[in-house]
Amino acid sequence: MCLAIPGKIIEIKGSTAVIDYGFEKREANASLIDDLKVGDFVIVNAGFVMDKVPEEQALKSLEAWKNAGKNG
Fold first, then answer.
1. Is the sign of the CA dihedral 36, 48, 26, 43 positive or negative?
2. Phi/psi of residue 43, each to 5°?
3. 6, 35, 37, 59: which has the fewest C-beta neighbours closer than 10 Å?
C-alpha cells in the first residue's frame, strides 16, 4: 500500500510541474492530466501527477498528516 501526500503546483514548465509539499519541492511529469494549473493540489506517484485533489480535501489530508502521531 502506498500513502500519498497532496502537494500544491507552484510552477508548470512544459509537461513538468513543480510540486510544493511544504517541507520540500519536487518535479513531476504532468502529461497524464489535462488542464492542470498553478495552485492545483495533486497526488504524485512514481514521478507522475496521477490526480487532482479538491483543495478542501487536500487541506484536510495535510492537517491529518500534520497531526499524525500527536495523539499517541
1. positive
2. -110, 135
3. 35
Q: Report d(CA 59, CA 53) in Å as an integer.
A: 10
Task: Show the cell assigned to 11.
Answer: 510552477
Instruction: For residue range 18-59, list pLDDT tens digits in order.
Output: 999 988 999 999 999 999 999 999 999 999 999 999 999 998
Q: Which amino acid is it at 65?
A: W
* CATH T-level topology, domain 7-67: SH3 type barrels. (2.30.30)
Question: Exposure string (b/e) for 28-52, b if CB count within 10 Å is 16 or more?
Answer: bebeebeebeeebbbbbeeeebeeb
